[in-house]
Write the structure tokens for this entry.
Amino acid sequence: MRSLIGAIILAGGALALQACSTSYATASRHLREAPACCTTLAELPSDSLRVGEEKSFDLGKDSPAFDFAGGKSFFRAFALPGEPYPYRVTVSSFLVGDDLRTAYLFSPQLVTLDADHRVVRATGPGDFVVEKVGLAESLREGGRLRSKLVGGLDFPDASRGERYLVVLTSDELRRGTTPVPRHDDDSMLFVGLDEKARKEMVRLPNGAAGRVRIAVAASHAPAPTAAPAPAPAVERPATQGLPAAAAVKAGTDIPASTAAAAPALVTARLANGRVIVGLELGRSTVETVRTLFGAAGADVGPEAPNAVPFVVGTARVTPKRLYTPPSSQLRLYFDEKGVLVAFVDGASVDLPATGEEFLQRFPAARETGRTMNSYELQTPLSPCVTLVAVYRTLGAGLDSAAYVHACPQR
């Protein structure tokens, strides 16, 4: 059974990937025509980077280019965090394209520089591996194709002399190819395929452009604060933990009376801190949601089609319409009648901070997906609503949450 990870990836990704409209040949031409931004490594423009931070960016015609020792490349440079050590920098590069016939990807090389902008160390081709894309990525980068290249560097206390990190590629890497599952664009978990089909690979060209995410996490997460023992399961309503139509402090439970009275209510939080209440899975229409957002001075964004089924528990839900409100990490999915049936939040504050605490609060939860960087937990909240939470394996933080209404609409 396919997890919710794959469904959301398919539906949401096309909105995020600017590089999807750029073919391999066009990206190569853009690089050839791009002027070098600088004459020395000391002149490379750089952004700040802190432990616990993630940034996503496109590399392409609007990016600076430089003639590195390994060849000309679009790049992004960062000033490394000074403290705390140790930490790890992880870089993910997502496939570009709508199907494997025309797809390619940016094969990253990571180079560190000291305070005088001299090269200290660099990654090689073997330092990056192919992984499946998870729900966390789908909220920002996603795409119809569900493979990515992932690699990184560790920064122990002995790395204090390394001050900058540059994400680039080389002529050698661009001349190479990357093997990905041949059925990458058929199914996240290759449902219905035999073992031989699951192992079939196809080699995709490495290109000059792509979609990249960089994340910095402490290598040793601090021990979690001891939490009070959870109440007996019999005293917890099935909807415990579902966001109610009121602001809920991070890490707190929703009052049982509220959860029982409104088992399908969800709360939307915008980047500016505004809270939108009254969204009800299985009942709110597009017009209702648009009105609620408008009252908060926000917009639900343009409509996009969705044809990907979400599989939660034993149910299959196929929303037909998708909205991505600007200035938020939200995804709103509606059925063919225009009724809200799925709500995805990439910045939830209503759920436990760790997967262990989540399992304590929801004893019926089960793991339904895992990558090197994240894992997915599902639990029923009511006969109609299922909660999906994605936690990071590195740093042990909550990455995103989804709520799906799976009962037929009247």
The first strand starts at residue 46 and ends at 48. The mean pLDDT is 77. Helices lie at 4-16, 24-33, 135-138, 171-174, 195-199, 256-261, 286-295, 355-361.
